[in-house]
Write a sequence for this structure.
């Protein structure tokens, strides 16, 4: 199979894809995504969506009935081992060495701010 999928289509196929893009209602999608596009950007987006739909159609046309499912792309595999009971630290020792603790729990700095905290 070629490394690259050519996205060259006849004008009839492009017209079919344009209808599909119209059905998506590009303006509504842009509004829902809070995008503000110039007419040129809108045309480019429509063209990109048509190319994506063309690629999806080509991928759907490929017969994968004889292809085995791929679970790992790089050939690595997990090396499982049995769980083994071993020495562990006592909770009190760990808490004593923590920079900040409350009872049996670690206290950590706030990393997610509340919605109102972002406004200045």
């Amino acid at each position: 199979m070629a490394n690259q999928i050519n996205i060259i289509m006849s004008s009839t196929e492009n017209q079919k894809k344009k209808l599909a893009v119209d059905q998506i209602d590009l303006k509504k999608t842009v509004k829902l995504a809070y995008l503000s596009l110039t007419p040129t950007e809108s045309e480019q987006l429509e063209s990109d969506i048509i190319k994506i739909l063309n690629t999806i159609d080509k991928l759907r046309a490929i017969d994968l009935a004889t292809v085995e499912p791929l679970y790992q792309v790089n050939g690595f595999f997990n090396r499982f081992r049995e769980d083994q009971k071993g020495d562990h630290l006592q909770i009190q020792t760990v808490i004593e060495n923590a920079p900040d603790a409350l009872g049996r729990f670690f206290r950590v700095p706030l990393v997610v701010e509340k919605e109102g905290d972002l406004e200045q």
Observations:
- The longest strand covers residues 101-102.
